[in-house]
Amino acid sequence: MSDTTATVEEETSPTTPVVDEDYVSLKTWFTVWASVIGAFIAVLNIMITNASLKDIQGALGATLHEGSFISTAYLTAEVVVIPLTGWLIQVVGLRRFVLTVSGIFLVATLCCAMAWSLESMLVFRTIAGFAGGTFIPLSFTVILTLLPPSKQPLGIAMFSLTATQAPSIGPTLGGFLTENYG
Question: What is the per-residue pLDDT across 40-73, written as a single tens digit (0 to 9) for each?
């Protein structure tokens, strides 16, 4: 009986640190939230452009047929890069990859706003599509890699909330931006 008592005392002694496997630091939650917001912005970008497509066509002097390539360029690039995202993260590393594609997406999207011709718009939209297409699988990678299994449903719920809100907000925001800022 003394052997059992000694074992129990050793396991529950006050000097033994207790590690909570479900604990998630604020830094990790910030990373998860940032990745989810990235996916939200990528979908929002598509919706804003689609809502403002006629005005964009008019500003660039593009026909209806030519203007349809503005959305197609982004979506095609996005579809091409989605399956490559996991491999690219392994090659480059998660942090470097996130920072690089975020910077590329930001610059390409700003260049879209300053496009001087249909051709420049298509190039910038394609680049933005390659960068923006990584945000959705990147968000899932961050959620499933950084969060413990007990917190992953909360991460997926965060993603789901933003994924359903972007298509709802996009047309309204696109119309507002087009009306007020051209």
Answer: 998 898 888 888 888 888 888 888 888 888 889 9
| pLDDT tens, residue by residue, 70-90 | 889 999 999 999 999 999 999
Q: Which residues contact 177 (CB under 8 A, 6 or more apart)?
A: 48, 52
Q: Which two tokens stand for residue 72?
A: 């197609």
In this prediction the pTM is 0.80
DSSP per position, 107-143: HHHHHHHT--SHHHHHHHHHHHHHHHTTHHHHHHHHH
Domain 25-181, CATH number (from 1.20.1250.20, 3.40.630.30, 3.40.50.2300, 3.90.1150.10): 1.20.1250.20
Contact 167, 43 (CB under 8 A): yes
